[in-house]
Automatic annotation (TrEMBL):
UniProt xrefs under InterPro entries: Acyl_CoA_acyltransferase, GNAT_dom, N-acetyltransferase
Domain N-acetyltransferase positions: 16-148
GO molecular function, one term: acyltransferase activity, transferring groups other than amino-acyl groups
Transmembrane segments: none
Pfam families named among the record's database cross-references: Acetyltransf_3
Lineage: Bacteria, Bacillati, Bacillota, Bacilli, Bacillales
Originating species: Paenibacillus arenilitoris
Official protein name in the record: GNAT family N-acetyltransferase
């Protein structure tokens, strides 16, 4: 797929965090992060092939989720980035997920802020984020980033709230 946008920068830095493109070795912690959702952990091979697919789509689409590493501690704590998700390549979604052990320290907001800047640099004018109605931590992150609630849709698991941010 080609687009009218400049490819997103896949290496980003904040005060405390480094965001980078996925490496196959990230499969080890990525499957543990998925496991924290309370669903079945993917096998190492499944996680690895998801990462290979993600890298391929990043090259095609010019947007991606990125890994988040804490600079001082050197550990990987999750991911943040842009995805098509339920939206479009022109107006993608911002997404984030962190290990429980690193919640509540402002990391998601810090990572998402620099992803938002990276989205602006691609020439995009609007971002979305779709959030399950019960996910108050996620709503709070979006609020801090000046997203606004827009509308809801429903699927088999219930209400999904669409939040929008004009860039
Ligand atoms: C959503 C998530 C990424 C937030 O990460 P985080 O690093 O803890 O976020 P931050 O610390 O930047 O900000 C969280 C904010 O939510 C608030 N918060 C946390 N839990 C909350 C709750 N249950 N109800 C209301 N607010 C809550 C925090 O107090 C903080 O706000 P504050 O800065 O005003 O105090 C993290 O909870 C997560 O990975 N959840 C599982 C995956 C997920 O839901 N991803 C989003 C899918 S849409």
């Amino acid at each position: 797929m080609t687009s009218n946008f400049v490819p997103m920068e896949f290496q980003l830095k904040t005060e405390r965090l480094d965001l980078n493109m996925w490496e196959e070795s990230d499969a080890v912690w990525m499957r543990q992060l998925v496991g924290e959702r309370g669903v079945e952990m993917p096998s190492l091979d499944e996680a690895r092939s998801q990462i290979i697919n993600m890298r391929k789509r990043a090259a095609e689409n010019g947007i991606s989720l990125l890994t988040i590493r804490r600079q001082k501690e050197g550990d990987l704590i999750g991911y943040c980035g842009l995805i098509i998700g339920r939206s479009t390549l022109e107006e993608p979604e911002i997404a984030y997920e962190l290990f429980r052990s690193s919640h509540g320290k402002g990391y998601a907001t810090e990572a998402a802020s620099v992803v938002l800047d990276a989205a602006i640099a691609t020439g995009r004018r609007r971002l979305w984020s779709t959030v399950r109605i019960w996910n108050n931590a996620s709503f709070r992150v979006l609020e801090k980033l000046r997203f606004e609630r827009h509308h809801s849709t429903w699927d088999e698991r219930g209400e999904v709230v669409w939040n929008v941010r004009e860039l």
